[in-house]
Amino acid sequence: MKERKSIMKEKTVAILTVDSIPDRKYDFIGCVMASCCLSKSIIQDVSSNIRNWTIGGELRQYKAMIDESVILVMDRIADEAARRGADMVIGFRLSTTSVSTGAAEIIGYGTAIRFLPG
Predict the structure, then answer these.
(1) Cα 86 from chain centroid (whole Å)
(2) Which strands, in side-by-side order, build the sheet including 12-15?
(3) Are 84 and 32 in contact (CB under 8 A)?
(4) 102 and 40 in contact (C-beta within 8 Å)?
(5) What structural domains does the chain harbor?
(6) pLDDT in tens, 44-99
(7) Long-range Cβ pairs for the range 68-71 (8 Å, 24+)
(8) CA-to-CA distance for 19 and 110, rounded, in angstroms?
(9) Is residue 89 within a helix (H) or strand (E), and if so which, with residue range?
(10) CB proximity list for 84: less than 8 A, separation 6 or greater
């Protein structure tokens, strides 16, 4: 379970990949989504390509870029869910695309829910 503290309402909104919460009653608020597109500088891109062509292995600069993007997307989704009065986001999914050389877009989406009393 990934939890993020909402910046807007200081409310913790859990973000889960499960599609339902057994034994709990809740209302669906709706879909929440966010995206982030980051790129590396030309120098970092060239050095990563040289490493890829010559040595191989993990491209740490790109990994850091993707990790940062995922965190930003999850923060934005948690903020949007909190703004809409949600207690949790379920069915969370991530998708990645390559927008151009050295740039990647991360898209995250899920369903915001509010627990019912009882």
Answers:
(1) 17
(2) 2-5, 12-15, 88-100, 103-115, 26-39
(3) yes
(4) yes
(5) 2-115 (3.30.110.70)
(6) 555 555 555 556 667 677 778 888 889 999 999 999 999 999 999 999 999 988 77
(7) 68/38, 69/36, 69/37, 69/38, 69/104, 69/105, 69/106, 70/94, 70/106, 70/108
(8) 9
(9) strand 88-100
(10) 29, 30, 32, 112
Residue the block writes with tokens 């948690």: 78
Which structure tokens are listed for 81?
Answer: 């869910």
Closest CA to 80 of 24, 23, 11: 11
- Distance, in Å, from the CA atom of 40 to the CA atom of 112, rounded to the nearest integer, reads 32
Give dist(CA 78, CA 58) in Å, integer.
30
CB atoms within 10 A of CB 49: 13
Q: Give the whole-angstrom CA distance, residue 39 versus residue 102.
A: 6
- What's at 81, amino acid-wise? A
**pLDDT of res. 97:** 82
- pLDDT for the residue 72: 93
Structure tokens at 104: 């990647």
